[in-house]
Design a protein that fits this description.
Blueprint lengths: L3 H4 L6 H28 L6 H9 L2 H15 L7 H16 L16 H25 L4 H20 L3 E2 L9 H4 L9 H19 L1 H11 L1 H6 L4 H27 L2 E2 L6 H11 L11 H20 L4 H26 L2
Length: 341
């Protein structure tokens, strides 16, 4: 009897691979073009350090975009990641704070730092498991479920912080991971971790059966089920994966700022969704790539940075970002349709 993996196409077909490569190249070309245009309009924009900053300043959103992209490819949403960022950061602070605080906001559970991180990560995974439960077991649309769990996670964070933040009575080791510089440079550990995550994600989506199954579920869920693929288990793993990434991001941000803030990660879920769509990930599933998502993040970062350099008001910056997203998605759709005529 042939196994499930024997029936899988090679991620997922040659034409699909070709189309994804075409869209990724198009997104990369748009990112480079926007950077060159911004260099002409904004003084001192064309600098190597600015290129580095476009990545390092957006490491958290790019990391979240990996989990969100995998779920989008499978035909599911995850809007809970911003809330999980806040929750895991607040939990890591609360668990690590000494039990002998002067007030409620400076008093925690006094756990060892390593154990505090592990417990905070479990809290993040619990939200991911909750997402999977309602989406997979009860069949509720993922956009509704994850929007609800995002508010639940942030609400729990607000209760723990009393609507404020926890930033005192922490062990000395708490701020180490978030501020650790590597390779004798100014690049911090979270940025390197994000780079490693990108490499692993690209390998998984291109070379591993797990990635091929993700594409197939998104492209044709009924055929995937008839081929013996356990869609429920696979989607559960994807939600746990996305929640785990968000949990790590929240813990690292809390470490960087040495505080647990209930509004941290606000709107990050939408930024992660935007960069995935900018990168060519299909909102209906079955198409897209992590590389495309990365260049989508660069596009958003260039537009935001250029708008700041041009001293545009926040309102105009928001409009400019919206226009850039709309034009990019329309252009991708038109180019792909024209190519496949």
């Amino acid at each position: 009897m042939s196994s499930v993996t024997d029936t899988l196409p090679t991620r997922p077909t040659r034409s699909k691979m070709s189309d994804e490569g075409f869209i990724s190249s198009l997104v990369a070309a748009v990112a480079i073009s926007l950077f060159l245009i911004a260099s002409l309009l904004v003084p001192n924009f064309f600098q190597w350090q600015n290129v580095v900053n476009l990545v390092t300043n957006n490491w958290a959103v790019i990391a979240l975009g990996v989990g969100v992209s995998f779920l989008l490819v499978s035909g599911n949403f995850d809007l809970s990641v911003g809330g999980i960022v806040a929750l895991s950061g607040v939990l890591s602070v609360w668990f690590a704070q000494s039990t002998e605080g002067a007030n409620a906001l400076s008093t925690g559970l006094g756990l060892p730092y390593g154990l505090a991180i592990a417990c905070a990560l479990l809290g993040a995974l619990a939200i991911g498991a909750l997402n999977a439960l309602f989406v997979v077991r009860f069949g509720i649309p993922s956009i509704i479920v994850t929007l609800g769990t995002m508010m639940v996670a942030r609400g729990i964070a607000q209760v723990i912080t009393h609507g404020s933040q926890r930033n005192t009575n922490l062990p000395e080791a708490f701020g180490y991971l978030g501020n650790l510089s590597v390779f004798g440079t100014s690049i911090k550990f979270p940025v390197v971790l994000m780079g490693l995550l990108l490499v692993v994600a690209i390998f998984v989506e291109r070379k591993m059966v797990f990635g091929r199954i993700t594409y197939w579920i998104g492209a044709n869920p009924e055929a995937a089920t008839l081929s013996g693929i356990d869609r429920a288990r696979h989607i559960t793993k994807l939600y746990l994966f996305s929640a785990g990434i968000a949990g790590v991001v929240g813990i690292l941000l809390a470490s960087e700022y040495k505080s647990g803030f209930s509004n941290r990660g606000l709107l990050m879920e939408f930024d992660a969704l935007v960069i995935a769509l900018l990168g060519g990930v299909a909102i209906a599933g079955g198409f897209g790539s992590v590389i495309g998502m990365f260049f989508g993040a660069i596009i958003l970062a260039v537009v935001t940075s250029a708008a700041t350099g041009l001293v545009l008001s926040p309102d105009w910056q928001f409009i400019l970002k919206a226009v850039a997203v709309f034009l990019a998605i329309v252009t991708q759709t038109w180019a792909l349709a024209r190519r496949n005529k």
